[in-house]
Amino acid sequence: MAIDIGIAKKDRETVAKHLSKLLADTYSLYLKTHSFHWNVTGPQFNSLHTMFEVQYNELWTAADEVAERIRILDVFAPGSYSQFGKLTSIKEEAGVPEWKDMVAQLVEGHEIAAATARDTIKAADTAGDEGTADMVTGRLKEHEKTAWMLRSLLK
């Protein structure tokens, strides 16, 4: 059955490409945050271990929401590490940095995801896709807030 939600196929595909980048950033940030949760050490261990858990759970839920929005637009969502690796702007961390570097990397990751969200909102606005713009605005606010909270630990 053909989809007819008031957004042209070309526009849906354009928005889905932006959402796919946001999904890749979200999933990559989820994986990094979860790894840091497992491996953090130092005097801030308890608070960071707990904070990272809250953050990776939020990112996990967000990844599902973004992927489902791509499907709502009748486009298949990326779902492999190789696809995410090509789409994301989040740098992978192969080692176990000190806690301050973990926090700094997560700040950077949330700022990158916020920038991706802003680009996605612009594409959604151009396409007349209020549903995507609304959802991604929430994601933008969450990434900005998380970056601020993490950044505050480094001052």
From TrEMBL:
<dbReference type="GO" id="GO:0016722">
    <property type="term" value="F:oxidoreductase activity, acting on metal ions"/>
</dbReference>
<comment type="similarity">
    <text>Belongs to the Dps family.</text>
</comment>
<dbReference type="InterPro" id="IPR009078">
    <property type="entry name" value="Ferritin-like_SF"/>
</dbReference>
<dbReference type="Pfam" id="PF00210">
    <property type="entry name" value="Ferritin"/>
</dbReference>
<feature type="domain" description="Ferritin/DPS">
    <location>
        <begin position="17"/>
        <end position="154"/>
    </location>
</feature>
<keyword id="KW-0238">DNA-binding</keyword>
<dbReference type="InterPro" id="IPR012347">
    <property type="entry name" value="Ferritin-like"/>
</dbReference>
<dbReference type="InterPro" id="IPR023188">
    <property type="entry name" value="DPS_DNA-bd_CS"/>
</dbReference>
<dbReference type="InterPro" id="IPR008331">
    <property type="entry name" value="Ferritin_DPS_dom"/>
</dbReference>
<dbReference type="InterPro" id="IPR002177">
    <property type="entry name" value="DPS_DNA-bd"/>
</dbReference>
<dbReference type="GO" id="GO:0003677">
    <property type="term" value="F:DNA binding"/>
</dbReference>
<dbReference type="GO" id="GO:0008199">
    <property type="term" value="F:ferric iron binding"/>
</dbReference>
<protein>
    <submittedName>
        <fullName>Starvation-inducible DNA-binding protein</fullName>
    </submittedName>
</protein>
